[in-house]
């Protein structure tokens, strides 16, 4: 499983995120060309190499043309790339930057997204991020969702940051997004109506339920835009880095603080859940591990939603998820939804069941798992390379099987039935 991991030890903002993802490998020309599909004008994107406390990475700055005099683009031209979205900007730019900064509501932003030729996945992800901010602002100001006028996030630079992040995530095509606990900073931040202690109200509202830290520095390190990007995209928040690191990259922030003002991101690979975690004990090639079974009975949920819930539970680390048909009170047919998870994952699994299903309660009981030792190897077939999982008992091989995802991929690549792939694997293994 290919994963993207956000290490937010110095927080996250929209521009830090774009810098980090470009540094990770997103093609900057691709990003700019995709952003060009939006009917918004009057901004420049500056991408350059920069460093903080000796750490080199990529810095992105979205500059509105009305503010251009504030930035000295001629500096470091040998390491900078400037993209100017003018598109007859002298004609279109008569959109009053003050209006663009302060008077867009959610419908205005959604119209910008819907009217573009961006992919459906990018559009959906962008809408999800903006909705996080709109919901937070509506609650803070006691307004209806569509009556909220964005402040920071209605501005052109934030529109570019958020939709740009969706474009980058779509480009990377990872299977799962993870993040560390999020550093919010300290001190005071200027909000629409005056100074407010960090975190800003919108940031705090957006990050409800997310593990956060405060006080590493006395400035705001996580902005509402950065918070919305995390809240809309991250499948699991954990400080454990239980994956194989393939690439590390850095997005450089606008400040120079005591700790490096950078966002570190990893591209990594998670192999099938290892039985060798800190709760497991090996005895004669078997692993004994404590785990939880979480259960809830449901008789009033749209059956189409079960697939979504199961996928989300697996994505945040469930070992197994399964459904059992049951008969509930008054003879109503229902489903018992069961989740097998680690001790550490119990809280997030329970939260997901309570928020993503119609159940009113979840019960749990501790169990002990016994698993055979597993080894993974690759074999070559005439259709391509396939990973094979071998199970051992007392040092002896008792069973082996090819990984389904590899078989599925090769069947598609070779335009043959998947059963032919399995037959070929068995033929190779029997030699």
Describe this structure in words.
This protein is α+β, with helices and mostly antiparallel strands and 431 residues long. The protein folds into 3 domains: 2-269, no CATH class; 280-370, 2-Layer Sandwich (Alpha-Beta Plaits), CATH 3.30.70; 373-429, mk0293 like domain (Ubiquitin-like (UB roll)), CATH 3.10.20.300. It has 13 helices and 19 strands. The radius of gyration is 25 Å and the shape is globular. The model is unreliable at 68-102 and 273-283 (pLDDT under 50).
Number of domains: 3
The CA-CA distance between the termini, in Å, is: 30 Å
Nearest-integer average pLDDT: 84
Unreliable spans are: 68-102, 273-283
Work out the number of β strands: 19
Note the main sheet: 7 strands, antiparallel
The helix content, as a percent range, equals 25-40%
How large is the radius of gyration?
Answer: 25 Å
Oligomer: single chain
Shape, per Cα inertia axes: globular
Count of helical segments? 13
Strand content: 25-35%
Protein structure class: alpha+beta
């Amino acid at each position: 499983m290919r994963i993207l991991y956000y290490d937010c030890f110095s927080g996250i903002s929209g521009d830090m995120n774009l810098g980090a993802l470009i540094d990770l490998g997103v093609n900057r020309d691709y990003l700019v060309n995709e952003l060009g599909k939006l009917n918004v004008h009057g901004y420049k994107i500056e991408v350059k190499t920069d460093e903080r406390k000796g750490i080199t990475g990529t810095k992105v700055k979205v500059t509105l043309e009305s503010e251009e005099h504030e930035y000295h683009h001629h500096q470091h031209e040998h390491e900078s790339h400037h993209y100017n979205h003018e598109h007859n900007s002298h004609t279109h730019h008569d959109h009053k930057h003050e209006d663009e900064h302060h008077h867009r509501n959610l419908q205005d932003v959604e119209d910008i997204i819907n009217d573009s030729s961006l992919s459906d996945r990018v559009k959906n992800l962008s809408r999800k991020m903006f909705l996080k901010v709109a919901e937070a602002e509506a609650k803070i100001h006691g307004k209806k969702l569509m009556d909220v006028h964005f402040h920071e996030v209605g501005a052109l630079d934030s529109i570019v940051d958020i939709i740009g992040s969706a474009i980058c995530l779509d480009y990377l095509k990872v299977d799962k997004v993870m993040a560390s606990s999020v550093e919010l900073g300290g001190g005071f931040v200027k909000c629409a109506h005056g100074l407010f202690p960090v975190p800003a109200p919108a940031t705090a509202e957006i990050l409800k339920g997310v593990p956060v830290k405060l006080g590493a520095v006395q400035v705001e390190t996580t902005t509402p835009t950065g918070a919305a990007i995390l809240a809309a995209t991250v499948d699991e928040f954990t400080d454990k880095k239980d994956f194989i690191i393939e690439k590390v990259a850095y997005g450089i922030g606008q400040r120079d603080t005591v700790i490096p003002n950078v966002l570190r991101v990893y591209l990594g690979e998670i192999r099938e859940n290892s039985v060798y975690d800190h709760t497991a004990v090996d005895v004669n090639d078997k692993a004994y591990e404590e785990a939880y079974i979480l259960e809830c009975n449901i008789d009033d949920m749209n059956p189409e939603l079960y697939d979504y819930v199961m996928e989300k539970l697996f994505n945040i680390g469930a070992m197994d998820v399964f459904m059992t048909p049951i008969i509930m009170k008054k003879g109503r047919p229902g489903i018992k939804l069961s989740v097998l998870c680690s001790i550490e994952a119990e809280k997030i699994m329970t939260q997901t069941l309570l928020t993503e299903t119609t159940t009113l309660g979840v019960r749990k009981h501790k169990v002990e798992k016994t698993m055979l030792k597993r080894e993974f190897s690759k074999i070559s077939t005439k259709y391509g390379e396939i990973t094979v999982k071998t199970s051992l008992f007392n040092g002896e091989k008792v069973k082996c099987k090819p990984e389904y995802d590899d078989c599925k991929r090769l069947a598609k690549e070779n335009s043959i039935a998947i059963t032919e792939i399995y037959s070929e694997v068995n033929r190779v293994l029997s030699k």
